[in-house]
Amino acid sequence: MIEYRSFRNTDPPQLAEIWRGHTSRGLMQPMSMAVLERYVLAKPTFDPAGLIVAAEGNRLLGFAHAGFGPTDDFETVSAERGFTGLVMLRADADPAIGSALLARSEAYLAERGAKTFFGGASYPLTPFYCGLYGGSQFSGVLDSDQRLHTVFQTANYRQVNRSVVLQRDLMGFRPVVDRQQIQIRRTTRLETVVDPPAGSWWEAVMFEPFERTRWALVEREGGPSLASVHVWNLETMLGTWGVHAVGIVDLQVTSERRRRGLATNLLGEAFRQLQSHGVTLAEVHVPQANEPALAVFGNLGFEQVDGSALYCKD
């Protein structure tokens, strides 16, 4: 008989074992109890009742992990938007167990006030699994993870957003050189901040375990940044990808200076510095509808390696 229950402190060894039974381009491996503890269970937003397991006797067959997104100011948790980030089963488990886990995950969220249920999770909706699922960002269910797509589609979730997963081999990378880029280099300077302070409590919860760097372009005579980007160390993916990689998030250009080559210049200079530190791969998740950003990364030689979909159910 299958029992569905909340997480217990004796579960991590089998949770890690279930995880190791899966292979995907964007799945961190090899999973261990220590990694689960640091990147998931130790988060201040972790609620044992939201990690639901299916057990047959002493053997776990699978799990689903539910949680909540942030308030609008990113300073605490909001119960209005709930998500089921992952549903994972053993290879020999009945797929119907996945549906049963998802139903119990939804019940957990509804009991605590959630009005909208998300399937998968999209940055910055969830503080969990950064660097463990998705690669540089948790932007929804990976296209390479068809099993999880099936779980949400069977439960009548609909896709509400799609992202494109892009990667660039930094070996041999050279910044773009043309008149526009030369002019930008003459009139701006690059500022580098290692381990920048978090912009909010939520950001601190998400990225606490990772080394981050912020690069910004500013006018040579000073003033606010014209463009900025955060890059974080993806050492968690070393076992899966076999290379030292970084993730790119929060690329921003001031509205009055967009489409003038600033993003290309900023990223090119950042990649040049990353090369000198032995980083050989960069990854970014870009919303499919963001055509300007896709063009910038495409011009820098990024290529699509995967896609992702965020699901929703009202």
| Shape assignment | elongated
Which class of the largest domain in CATH terms?
Alpha Beta
For this structure, the CATH topology of the largest domain is Aminopeptidase
The CATH architecture of the largest domain is: 3-Layer(aba) Sandwich
Overview of this protein structure:
The chain is built from 9 helices and 13 strands. By secondary structure, the protein is α+β, with helices and mostly antiparallel strands. The chain folds into 2 domains: 2-162, Aminopeptidase, CATH 3.40.630.30; 167-307, 3-Layer(aba) Sandwich (Aminopeptidase), CATH 3.40.630. β4 (77-89), α3 and β5 (116-119) form a beta-alpha-beta unit. It is elongated, with a radius of gyration of 20 Å.
Defining key terms:
13 strands, 13-stranded mixed β-sheet, alpha+beta, 9 helices, 28% helix, 314 residues, 2 domains, Aminopeptidase, elongated
Entry summary:
This protein is 28% helix and 33% strand.
Secondary-structure map with pairings?
Blueprint: E1 2-6, H1 12-20, H2 33-41, E2 51-56, E3 59-70, E4 77-89, H3 96-111, E5 116-119, E6 141-142, H4 146-154, E7 158-169, H5 179-187, E8 188-194, H6 201-207, E9 212-219, E10 225-233, H7 238-241, E11 245-253, H8 262-276, E12 281-287, H9 291-299, E13 303-313
Parallel strand pairs: 4-5, 11-12
Antiparallel strand pairs: 1-2, 2-3, 3-4, 5-13, 6-13, 7-12, 7-13, 8-9, 9-10, 10-11
